[in-house]
Design brief:
By secondary structure, this protein is α+β, with helices and mostly antiparallel strands. It has one domain: Glycosyltransferase, CATH 1.50.10.10. The chain contains 8 helices and 8 strands. A 4-stranded antiparallel beta sheet has the order 3-4-5-6, with no helix packed on it. Strands 1-2 form a two-stranded antiparallel sheet. A two-stranded antiparallel ribbon has the order 7-8. Strand 3 and strand 4 form a beta hairpin. The protein is globular, with a radius of gyration of 17 Å. About 35% of the residues are buried.
């Protein structure tokens, strides 16, 4: 915590991706997929001497504020207590962001923030339904998306689809993911990881 967090007035303890390279002149580069709430809560129970509660609350805030159109970005910028599109990658949600949907869908139903976050992510669910698979890339400010993602994207979306009560879409994505794994392609990393 000492090396990879920053305490920001009005925001709380924010997790940075690494000890260096993600802060400059009061501007911070963050990745919403790096803050699975269930892991932060578990760390609080294991190591209560640290201020995990502040990180948990700041992480919930990050997840909520970085999805203006209901899609999580790969990266975002935090400056003066406000989140905006990342200056390097822009408002893109793709290979990093898919984990954000996975983590939220996997939250225990008793976690009060789950319902709010699942509701906030319904545009992602609607896009998955429209495309027949999660979008490979989406503009997180406008909600415009392109081609459908791979089997790995479908697999990562399953918990969120279940939490959304989308049983038919859940089954379709499950079968699509099963069928897509093992297909001979050059790049298996995001499908098999």
């Amino acid at each position: 915590l000492r090396e990879e967090t920053v305490n920001i007035a009005g925001v709380g303890t924010v997790l940075l991706p690494a000890p260096t390279g993600f802060d400059a002149d009061g501007q911070y580069r963050v990745n919403p997929s790096y803050v699975p709430l269930q892991l932060i809560a578990r760390m609080q129970s294991l190591y209560p001497q640290y201020n995990w509660d502040s990180m948990y609350k700041a992480s919930v805030h990050m997840l909520e504020k970085t999805m203006p159109a209901g899609f999580s970005p790969d990266w975002a910028t935090l400056r003066n207590g406000r989140y905006s599109s990342d200056g390097v990658t822009g408002p893109i949600g793709s290979y990093n962001a898919i984990r954000t949907y996975l983590w939220v869908g996997m939250l225990n139903d008793q976690v009060s923030e789950k319902a709010v976050l699942v509701q906030k992510m319904q545009p992602f669910v609607a896009a998955t339904k429209a495309l027949g698979a999660p979008a490979r890339e989406v503009n997180t400010e406008t909600g415009k998306y392109t081609q459908s993602g791979s089997a790995g994207f479908s697999a990562a979306a399953l918990p969120l689809l279940a939490a959304s009560g989308e049983s038919t879409l859940l089954e379709t994505q499950f079968l699509g993911a099963q069928k897509g794994f093992g297909v001979d392609k050059n790049d298996h990393y995001y499908d098999d990881a």
